[in-house]
Amino acid sequence: MLKIFMTGDNHIGRKYDRFPDVREILAQSRIDSMERMVRQAEQEECGLFVVTGDLFDSISTVRMCDVKRTAEILSKFPGTVLVLPGNHDYYTGEEKVWKDFEKALLHMDHNITLLTEYRPYYFEAGEEHAVIYPACCRSKHSRENNLAWIKNTEIRNESAYHIGIVHGAVRGITPDLKEEYFLMTEAELLEIPMDAWLVGHTHISWPSLEAQEGTGGYRIFNAGTHEQTDFNNRTQGCCFILSLEQTEGTVKVTAHKYVSGRIRYYDLNLQVRVQDNESLEQKLAAVLKELPAESVVRAKISGTVKAEEYADRKKIYQNALDRFLSYEYADAELGEEITVKKIRDEFSETSFAAKFMERLMDHPVELQMAYQLVKDCSD
Predict the structure, then answer these.
(1) What is the DSSP string of 326-378?
(2) Which partner from 100, 142, 188, 216 sits 20 to 30 angstroms from 67, CA to CA?
(3) Who's near 337: CB < 8 A, 6+ residues apart?
(4) What is the pTM assigned to this prediction?
(5) In three state form, how does the secondary structure of 182-229 look?
(6) Within a 10 A sphere around the Cβ of 78, how many other Cβ atoms?
(7) Are 237 and 228 in contact (CB under 8 A)?
(8) Is the dihedral of CA 192, 193, 196, 198 positive or negative?
């Protein structure tokens, strides 16, 4: 049996300028997760540790210290490490990030191979043999994928596992409206006689696998990013562990996931309704109570609250959100409860506006709209 630990889209060196107070924590967490993955791969007795592209976030802006630390972490894996250049860290031989990586490796014992050529690579993992067919990226964008050389290669039916590693969008799975990210199709991959395809680029993992349960019936795997990158990336941060076993001339592939991410990003929409006898403080507590402290939270808050809470809302936000790594909120659509007293304090009791709004007291949504309309006209 051949066991493979699969990760990709790690984006080491990612800049978190949007979160200046915690940018170093967020960047470091991506590296810390890599360290946990190597330990997990060793614990799972994997023979190969595969990075399916975008190990680094950029070809030129990643700090040398981060490149060196990543190389050190990967070098600790007792088996074979295979690193495929992706579209963010593409390879032509001139890129600073890869020169720094190769320079770092010169000073350490390692079993790391950078897959930069369009040719089969042969490896041994214990008693098992694997032939690797890499489709690395040599540019950030391309309207053509890099599968052509594999299609034109004779795949011999020898006693080895045949594994394709590719970085790019998959039609119907990865958003690629301009078709500029090495687009391929599932059918195109399945027509090539690989025992398994390890795909990078899509930050969400597919297929959907359970932790610690072998799932069979798939030949194409995309582990997604190992740590959630931002609010738009809805994932736990996962890796896959694949098991390939030859049985009577056929190869059975099973896989399960390992949740490697620690920091999570939550984009929340909270609506408070004073008519439901629910306070802003209660609403925030109920929604946030299950979220871990190692989170970045963005909350959009709408609805109506009582006058006292509306006046104290910023203090309420701080008390509820301060335990997280970072947070931000937007409450432009949150309003103070409109009462008869408030109407009469702001408008003449005999005015059309006051009489009109008082007739809407039993319809809070329409009342809020009417109040805002009158205020806008007054302004």
Answers:
(1) EEEEEEEEEEE---HHHHHHHS-TTSHHHHHHHTTTT-HHHHHHHHHHHHHHH
(2) 142
(3) 274, 304, 305, 306, 307, 310
(4) 0.90
(5) CCECHHHHHCCCCCEEEEECCCCCECCCCECCCEECCCEEECCCCCCC
(6) 13
(7) yes
(8) negative
- 295-305 and 264-272 as β-strands: parallel, antiparallel, unpaired? parallel
Q: Contact, 83 vs 53, CB < 8 A?
A: no
The CA–CA distances, whole Å, from 135 to 118, 146, 371 equal: 7, 5, 61
Q: Among all chains, which residue has been given the structure tokens 């309309």?
A: 373
- For 272-308, letters b (16+ CB in 10 Å) and e give bebeeeebbbebbeebbeeeeeebbbbbbbebbbeee
Q: Evaluate the omega torsion of the peptide bond into residue 207 and state whether it is cis, within 30 degrees of 0.
A: yes
First to last CA, the chain: 74
The encoded tokens of residue 75 equal: 């070098």
- Residue with the two structure tokens 């997990």: 40
Any bridge partners for residue 335, and if so which?
A: 304
Any idea which residue has 């398994």 for tokens?
Answer: 196
Distance CA 147, CA 155 (A): 14
Tokens of 277: 């006898």
